[in-house]
């Protein structure tokens, strides 16, 4: 009899698994339940959709529902929310507008993703307060920007260099959180002429990156006329009408961001304070969570419940350097782990693979990347004695007409010389992000700085100096 593979969640992890399983074993019955209307979408592109560089939400979709159904023979059911799993009976129950269905499975993948954290700030329910986690969030934000650009009830302050599209500018707006979504949205909103105020609880933006990277990015934000408030926890979002605890419909629009030191008038607020894994369904079915709060899995992405797998933003992964469970909700992990599960259920057991915590961000005209372990306490806890150097190096040959500086922070273990992590920042286009990949290779190979400094990296004047900035950093540390 044909096996049935059921997938809960129709984005990166879920559709990678479904597609791979069906491709490798065309006899497998593959059923995907997705509670929303969108599948296989690139949430990573949403800031650029809000900015106006991408014209439609449809452009963010890599494979349409029709293509999954007709070309890939996947039984995709959008508008179906899985509300219960019965591991003993091996069934899931899904609800849709047309009622409830019970579907049996032989293999089950939980690919339920993550949701935006909404911090318990007084007034967070007010009108004009947004998050950016889903396609519908992106749609709402784009509509907000479009309304504002039509000039409805907006001031027109004199704005600086970020105001690319408009002669007259709008604003002011607040962003809560200095992580990658906060920074990408600062760019998207400033490019549309908004006066941007960014509030960060900690003492620097991009806390997972090196201090040198954080400082370079914050300096650049200021050059772009973004007002950056560090060590500024938002205490309340004030405005007219009812606040949190009251009826959200009655909550008046946000008017002021309040911190211990500041009161800043705003016309909207974007909250980008991280994501949390969607685990309710898993927990209710007896699936165990790990120390990070995401679903715990083994090397094959299988949970403690036999034949139930978890992949993507709802699940933990294993760190390349420490071997410990980590929660790094990023797109490649979701695609890779989903694909591995698809291959496994199609008959070829495949490990999901470790993650090094490699991440990249563009903010206005700077780019930054990080990988591995940078935090000294984390390194000490993992049994290393970290030593760190930061170098500034030219991005291209000195005589080449263009170019800038790449700042590389490299961390290694003092005794063994093993490379532990790196953070890089440069002007956009000067290669910080692509250069980080050499360090990722070193992490995967458990290479030392002595080995990294001898990596045979490509060289030509338009791309680097003879000694690429990564090699320069390794030499300094060796
Ligand atoms: P999701 O994409 O969250 O999909 C989970 C799906 O499951 C959702 O469609 C949801 O509706 C569905 N679902 C949940 N529960 C149920 C249920 N009970 N029944 C049925 N369906 C259900 N990552 C990067 O690597 N680089 C980036 O630059 C980057 N930028 C980003 C920018 C933004 C604005 C956002 C929001 C994310 C960004 N990410 C980025 C993260 C990346 O989008 C995620 O890592 C990736 O989408 C995770 O895929 P997933 O399939 O695990 O989960």
Question: What features would you describe in this structure?
Answer:
This protein has 478 residues and is an alpha/beta fold. Helices cover 25% and strands 28% of the residues. It has twelve helices and 25 strands. The chain has helices at 12-24, 46-51, 65-71, 135-149, 180-191, 211-223, 280-284, 331-345, 376-381, 432-444, 449-452, 469-477; strands at 4-8, 29-34, 75-78, 81-86, 91-96, 99-104, 107-110, 114-116, 129-131, 170-176, 194-199, 227-229, 234-241, 251-259, 263-265, 268-271, 275-277, 308-310, 317-318, 325-326, 359-363, 366-372, 386-394, 405-413, 419-427. A five-stranded parallel sheet has the order 3-2-1-7-18. The chain is globular, with a radius of gyration of 24 Å. Mean pLDDT is 94; it is low at 152-168. The structure holds flavin-adenine dinucleotide. Flavin-adenine dinucleotide is lined by residues 8-14, 33-36, 43-44, 46-47, 81-82, 111-114, 132-133, 181, 278, 281, 312-313, 329-332, 334.
Tell me what portion of residues adopts beta-strand conformation: 25-35%
Question: Biggest sheet, in brief?
Answer: 5 strands, parallel
Shape type: globular
| Overall SS class | alpha/beta
Strand order of the largest sheet: 3-2-1-7-18
- Compute the number of strand runs: 25
Radius of gyration: 24 Å
The overall average pLDDT, rounded, is 94
How far do the termini sit from each other?
60 Å
User: Which stretches of 5+ consecutive residues score pLDDT under 50?
Assistant: 152-168
Helix content: 10-25%
What is the number of helical segments per DSSP (H or I, 4+ residues)?
A: 12
Q: Compounds present? A: flavin-adenine dinucleotide
